[in-house]
Design a protein that fits this description.
This protein is of the alpha+beta class and 209 residues long. 37% of the residues lie in helices and 11% in strands. The chain has eight helices and six strands. The strands form three sheets. Strands 1-4 form a two-stranded antiparallel sheet. Strands 2-3 form a two-stranded antiparallel ribbon. Strands 5-6 form a two-stranded antiparallel sheet. The chain is globular, with a radius of gyration of 18 Å. The chain starts with a helix and ends in a 23-residue tail after the last strand.
């Protein structure tokens, strides 16, 4: 019988050197989506998990990063979103496939809001912070071309992944879930499943050297 996405991810993580506390699991919460759940009491100071650096996704670990480093003026969030675009296009051939499957399909991100809905926020500061028109311009004037160049260079067949909607979705994920590490902006499997709300999280993250 095929494993569900959460079980498949845990199997993948353990097979690739992640250290995993036997009292936690990845769980799909009905109201908030996937997260990490304690299935038994865990004492203060116990290590929950450890993600090996080669399994973080950034411009150093993904083979697509080397190509994107040529574009030195590309924002690190944008560059990682393009890397994820390429990795997602590989499907099961991506070394991160079980992790990529866990990405939320829907996000309440201003980048994904239709313009008619954004207009309701014109009297607030939120549209200025996100600045969707500016990001859309950067995408159409530069990022789309960078992505197509990358797909051609690596002979990636499924260029349906190159679109504003896909880029906005992946950029929203990067903005919400990525971390700043020694290798730059990175997606860190497991770490992005903790509760990040200040005062509500009961776990601490450490970058070991």
């Amino acid at each position: 019988m095929a494993m569900d996405a959460e079980a498949s991810f845990q199997h993948w993580a353990q097979a690739n050197g992640f250290r995993w506390h036997n009292r936690i699991r990845i769980y799909h919460f009905p109201d908030t989506g996937r997260g990490m759940q304690a299935i038994q009491r865990i004492r203060t100071g116990e290590k929950l998990f450890e993600c090996p650096r080669p399994w973080q996704i950034n411009l150093e670990t993904s083979k697509f990063g080397a190509h994107l480093k040529r574009f030195r003026d590309l924002d690190s969030w944008f560059a990682l979103a393009v890397v994820l675009m390429a990795e997602c296009s590989l499907g099961e051939k991506s070394r991160w496939y079980p992790y990529l499957r866990l990405f939320p399909k829907t996000l309440n991100s201003l980048l994904l809001w239709p313009d008619t809905r954004l207009q309701r926020l014109q009297e607030t500061y939120l549209p200025e912070i996100v600045n969707k028109p500016r990001i859309m311009h950067i995408y159409s004037s530069k990022i789309e071309g960078v992505a197509r160049d990358l797909f051609r260079y690596y002979d990636l067949c499924d260029d349906s992944w190159i679109s504003w909607d896909t880029f906005a979705w992946l950029l929203s994920i990067v903005m919400a879930y990525s971390f700043s590490t020694n290798a730059g902006t990175s997606m860190v499997p497991c770490a992005d499943m903790l509760n990040a709300r200040t005062g509500k999280n009961n776990a601490r993250l450490f970058l070991s050297h």
